[in-house]
Amino acid sequence: MNFINKVNERIAERITRAVATMWCAYLFAAIALISLPTAIKSGDTIVIVSWIAQTFLQLVLLSIIMVGQNVQSKSVEKKIDETHFASLAEFELAKEARTIAHEELKELKAISQEMHALVRDLEKRLPKG
Predict the structure, then answer these.
(1) What is the pLDDT of residue 85?
(2) How far, in Å, CA of 17 to CA of 67, rounded?
(3) What span, in angstroms and rounded, lies between the C-alpha atoms of 107 and 32?
(4) What was the pLDDT predicted at 55?
(5) What pLDDT is stored for residue 126 in this prediction?
(6) In Å, what is the CA distance from 126 to each residue of 42, 48, 113?
(7) DSSP string, the chain
(8) How far is 92 from 38, CA to CA, in rounded Å?
(9) Which site among 17, 19, 103, 109 is 20 to 30 Å from 117 CA-CA?
(10) The whole model's pTM is what?
(11) Per residue, what are the HEC states of 95-111?
(12) Minimal CA–CA distance to 123: which of 115, 113, 110, 112?
């Protein structure tokens, strides 16, 4: 990535961080309210609706939506982290259970070998008939 692209990305990140705050939403609301008296004085419904839709909502909702997305993103990130840690814990439990099962299998094989040896010994001692 070249130098200009890196600079552009840094500028975009800083602007995004600044705009995605409630303080920016308050500032945008104040800026939008400056033109409200003129829109009302016009008495024209279209001008008033345009002010609401194009000036107030676009300016203010931009920041509020970005703040909301950040909040939702943090919530999703928290859930992902919790799921990840729970999965790791389950994995550790499964590894532990596998180790225990492996040890138990070794013990069962040893017991089986001992039993086979006892049976062979008994077979040798019993009269054939």
Answers:
(1) 95
(2) 9
(3) 79
(4) 87
(5) 84
(6) 118, 110, 20
(7) --HHHHHHHHHHHHHHHHHSSHHHHHHHHHHHHHTHHHHHHH--HHHHHHIIIIIIIHHHHHHHHHHHHHHHHHHHHHHHHHHHHHHHHHHHHHHHHHHHHHHHHHHHHHHHHHHHHHHHHHHHHSPP-
(8) 67
(9) 103
(10) 0.58
(11) HHHHHHHHHHHHHHHHH
(12) 115
Query: What does the pLDDT look like over 14-56, one tens digit per residue?
Result: 998 888 899 999 999 999 999 999 999 999 999 999 999 988 8
Residue with tokens 């840690």: 85
CA–CA distances in Å: residue 84 to residues 16, 26, 77, 87, 93: 29, 37, 10, 5, 14
pLDDT tens for each residue of 80-116: 999 999 999 999 999 999 999 999 999 999 999 999 9
